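Changelog excerpt

This revision adds worked examples to the README so contributors can see how folded entries look when concatenated. The first example is reproduced verbatim below.
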Amino acid sequence: MRNVHLIAYDICDPKRYRQVYRAMCGHGDPLQYSVFRCELSETELLGLKETLWPVLNLAEDRVMIVNLGPVEGRGDECIEFWGAPCVEPQTNDARIV
């Protein structure tokens, strides 16, 4: 069963920040700077943790993982946005004109 996870992080070193961001892009959708919404099974969540642990300096960095429940449940209903609308990040798709 896949659950919706809200993952936020505060990484002190720019190099580690870029590594964490790249890892997170493969597992979820960015909502804000350093905040991702991920639909993950337990196995996928464990894989993400195993990817991040070697990169992090736990004396300086922080990661918060919040399980919002099943994808089919209230996982999306419990996220509320105020202010500017959530915009999908631009992709580098080629366009022929």
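The second example, added in the same revision:
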Amino acid sequence: EPGVTDNKIVLGSVTPVSGPPSLLGKAHMLALKVWEQDVNARGGINGRKVEIRQDDDGYVPQRALQGIKRLNEVENIFGLIGTSGSAMLQAMLPYINEQKIPTINAMAVAASHFTPPNKTVFIVGPTYCQELSTAMTQLVKIKNLQKEKFALVYQDDEFGTDVRCGYQKAIKALGLNSVSEIAFKRGTKDFSAEMLSLKQAGATFLTSGGVVAEHSMLMKEAAKNQMPMTILAVHSAHLTPVQALAGAAGDGYYVADYVPPLTDLSVPGMAKFMGLAQKYLSADEVKSMNRYSITAYIGALLMEDAIRRCGKDLTRACVVDKLEATKNLGTDGLASPISFSPSVRHSPSSVLILRSDAKASKFDRVSDPVPVVD
């Protein structure tokens, strides 16, 4: 089988480690480094040591496709445990399907990744639509925000379409007053016109559908225009650099996510993960970790479990069979138990709401995990 010898398994990751979204890819790769060293210290998987090969897609779909081709044809990987953003995985899917590469995606989840199901691709975590609709519904109820004037700013691509889906579901389910929906092009740096438009519309609740830096830009514009707003963002705002970029405006915003903060060591899985990180990473590397490190580690544990259940006779087909037979795989609280079936390639996780404490450079829980709203 590709990437398998008597004593080695080669796995791959296509993630952005350059450009603005590099915060995501670098944190992802740090977690894979932790897992790789830990699993090898435990003797490998059924006697085979793990090696990880990485390709930088720069958050560009065409580069993602080139990356998976290189990993498969040059690096000879067995499976894929890192798949970048929504549009990047979408670009890779035809090739992944053609080559029948076992693939775990726990970074950016969109409905198009599993509708219809792709035979060898397994998705962990809610879609942005599920995540946002669940969190927005919960936040409105918890904080009694039914009378606010709601607005959405979202990126004009596959990612943004899924974010908009969640916003519209919550608006419809609760009968809320939506006063504006504004799309922006990828790479937009100036949101002054968008925020001025929201001010004129009287918006008091902003749903932020940015990738990373866009969240900070929107918050700063709101503060600049003296717009007191409740701000809810998708999980890409669950990053301390977003807090820092926003400055004083980055305190108090809410985030929808399906993994707890890195600082929440009351979660058994988090305490274990952070202990391993401190063992295998430098102090600077530990500081560079974020919520994408957690999801990468979850995906790696899922792949490890499937490979281990295949025993010595390791094939891509066997791993796919074991993944689709996964039932309630636990992660010690890092996420909800993971399950798939022959007809289901998506395992959504319960959603929780976090609140930014910018002064302390951390995030606090506002709610317990809640099952996703379909």
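Reviewer comment on example two: Residues 22-41 form the longest helix (20 residues). The longest strand covers residues 8-15.
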